[in-house]
Amino acid sequence: MLARSGEGSLLLIAPTGGGKTLAGFLPSLVELADGAHEGLHTLYVSPLKALAADIKRNLGAPIVEMGLPIRVEDRTGDTSYTQKRRQRADPPHILLTTPESLALLVSYEDAPRIFKGVQRIIVDEIHALAESKRGDQLMLALSRIQTMSPDLRRVGLSATVEDPAAIARSLARHPDPCPIVLADAGPDPDISMLLTDERPPWSGGGAKYSIPAVLDLVRTHKTTLIFHNTRAQAEIYFHNLWLANEDSLPIGIHHGSLSKDQRANVEAAMVRGDLRAIVCTGSLDLGIDWGDVDLVVQIGAPKNVKRLIQRIGRANHRYNAPSKAVLVPANRFEVVECVAALEAAKAHDLDGDPKGAGPRDVLCQHILIAACSGPFDATQLYQEITTVGAFSGLSRAAFDDCLDFCATGGYALRAYDQWKRLKQTDGLWHLRDPRAAARIRMNIGTIFDTETLKVKFRRSAKTLGEVEESFAASLTPGDTFLIGGQIVRYEGLNQLVVEVSREKGRSPKVATFNGTKFATSTQLSQRILRMFSQDDWPALPAHTAQWLHLQREVSKLPETGRILVETFPQDGREHMVVYGFAGVNAHRTLGLILTRRMEATGLNPLGFVVTDYALMIWGLTPVTDVDPLFDPQNLRDGLETWLAGNAVMKRTFRVAATVAGLIERNTRQGRKSGRQATFSSDILYDTLAKYDPDHLMLRITREEAMRGLVDFARIEDMLERTKGFVDHVTLDRVTPLAAPLFLEPGRIPVFGEGREKLLQDAAAALMKDAGLSTL
Amino acid sequence: MTDHSFTLANAQLRARPDGTLWWPDERLLCVSDLHLGKSERIARRGGTLLPPYETRETLWRLDEAVSATAPATVICLGDSFDDLGAALAVSDETRTTLARLQAGRDWVWIEGNHDPGPVDLGGRHLREFKMHALAFRHIAAVTVPDGEGEISGHYHPKAAIRGAGRRPCFLSNAARLILPAFGAYTGGMSARDPVLADLMGPEALAILTGKRAFPVPVAACAIR
Is A673 within 8 Å of chain B by CB? Predict the structure, then answer.
């Protein structure tokens, strides 16, 4: 680090742990040692407040011991008002902060004075920031600071990632180069797939069969982390693990739906070395360093190789000893997925969807922040923004669009030209009403803590549990689902709470609320498709290889360049299976669009079910001509109609419009008082959709939903990959690859003509039985 | 029939599902809290720039109600404009629409707390309006004299029951009727809020708006 401290930008990649943070500070300590520097020298930005506090402690001790004349302070949402004021008047040498607090600091009129002499900025866990809008906001703030202090050097610290060059590009001042330093990653991890005498089941995600073998592993290792893909699966597995835990090995559980206290207890027990294993989810992906973990078990296919590698990095930080990990497939198809993931990990072929261009809602907020700090020249600001990697391709027209939105609202109807938010005077843009600055500052940030929603009985304070937002968005009143071991009926969404009522003795319509979050990555899906094209599969266990051979004999194996569609009757219903390999989210969207279209063309669909690799629709009428269903234009039109009234769109709109400054965040005060001064953002969405459908906010909303919950981007990928070539195989019975779909939970019903017909038939049969059919 | 019919001080009234009140015997249509020009007022005061379509949307809905009932009298029960500045700044389009709606009928602007002064937009401007035993005012009075009925707005009542989300509602009891807010950009206050509970008493009914107007006891509604 010291040797390269002069670089304008530098990215340090080291596996999880490994002391890279302190390495990042070394040049700062050296440069500050002589006490000659006045004011701010180094900014440290991390995604977690807790990390900033941690660094303050870790850095403080050596500075005091060595008697260095260096002042280190943190500044986060938790810092007191007086402390923050003092920091502005007299900044410390090293300031530890978060992207949001930094953006706020940049918005002050005295920002140029505060940042004048700053020499270095260290961005910690940059791989985590780079995945969200927080990273975009941070890099925009950096572009402002760089203008105030042209000598600023940037250092990024990252865990192992698939595309270091992409992170480097996002860090550096575009088009400057950004050298990458790869710390010695140590030996390759020792990853294997768990082979048990008992064969994995055909479907499901519980992997209950593996419990005796996993307990053996826990017994023979010091500390084991047992990762799951969803919270619900972690809960069930933990429960079953304890039922089989005859030695009473101390095993804990840690996931995001648990209360803070529960999590803190488990973390403390772990640090004390009291636990032999923790059943956990992604909640342990970031942050605290676990010293003594010597085995990582991944239950269920990892879905994403990069995440797998980062999780494995949690085991064994001793130098030169390989990290050890075991993959446990939960069902037969996951055997294939696990083998594909093993091969990808060996080949260092990490995945990750390429990040799109810089999000424009964040850009709008940045323009408002710039206006808060003082008058600006549009061309200068535009040029400054294009030095940010993610915005380097931003056209002037797109920038002007955003500037116009900030200044006038950007509406087709120019109702209040006299009441602009920004005005231009002598060529410089500024706030028309200086009072607006305080309101804009209160709304800085891109984090929305609404990824999961609480579920409660109506008029009850007790939380039953939490469901993912995408699941809540897919519910309509009357739907029933399982939560905390009981069946409940969805009543409605109220103030970010899913309200339900008790439902006795019926099977849930929607069986599960999990598994909607992570779809198998595009790269991994592609690898599986390539595996399918092999003549034989020596790497697979015999039972799985035979299964694939049988599929090839009876029908076909899916190919990269074509969409395989099978149709066959089974149990008196006509079935259509689409092997899209586009992930569960995209398949769910595809299922909704296709069944809607099938309903319109009289194919009487009754329901569908999705997995990461396929979509199966059943109905009353056989599908003989599949081509029109997969016509790209038809699919896109279907999406437009379906989206317009969809709750996903309204939620996406709310986030984008809040980030862009159209809607102000609800203050705690406002939420408490019964009187709602504000009205629902849904009203704004409906109004815009009716009177101004091409408005910037609606365009942004559509783009975001496509990439996010709707995941239409992967349907587009599939169409692009296959050029719409459909292989339609007509069979007289179910195929080997389709069979597990019949056991898959989470069947989604279609309420249409098909169901009406079934009812009428049943009614007619009853009349006939009663001898009334001739009446 | 999608309206809800009821009697107040011997007058036969109908709460319509669009949130307007219809008095067939007098051919009188009453709406409350239009809050025209809300986006303009928020922008003028340095707030955000909301889509400036709420006036158009609100008047479009009012137009629908007027066309459906062909009233002799229209009463706007106060807070018709988000503030007096908004009333002064109305566009030519709004002015034309209002003139068309007012043609051939008595049009009464009751003053509200947001729009206390007279407006130059046709019609009469009153603090209060009385017809037979009914008094029309913006904010409910502390007491209503025996034998009289009072019709007011101001509180933007909303209520929710099982199976239906929170929606604007009328509140009614033996002496009073409170209208829901008619404006497009209006929030609301729970029918179970203590302020409204004190005013309306335990026997009050909430008449929910939507596809049909239907009454439910306020006591059976959700608290928030």
Answer: no
